[in-house]
Design a protein that fits this description.
By secondary structure, this protein is an all-alpha fold. The chain is 76% helix and 0% strand. It has one domain. Helix 1 packs antiparallel against helix 4. The model has no long low-confidence stretch (mean pLDDT 77).
Amino acid sequence: MRGLIGSDLFWAMRIVKYAGIQEEIEKIALETSEGKQLKQAEVGARFIIACVVGCSNTKAEAEIWSFLADLTEKKADELKNMDLSDLMTEIEALAEYISRYDFVDFFARLSRLISRG
């Protein structure tokens, strides 16, 4: 697995746009700016849940699979065809790995970019 890099910001912005989850991201950013101490894992979990809910948009789904594939260094089709238990294990491992990064700051900055519109 690889860590978050600069291009991930734009990938995440596309997912947020296609999935229509701007409000959820802005809510997370607002809560952190109000001094709430959200854990890295909580922020990541809320983002993943919002993405799954927004996946009714096929463009969002394709972006999410591509993003997960890139982060896990696997092929999107490989992830899509995994047993659900194995996929969840992969996502949990990814969440654990990227929780070492400042995920809260990443989404706060993402929210500011989105709100500028």
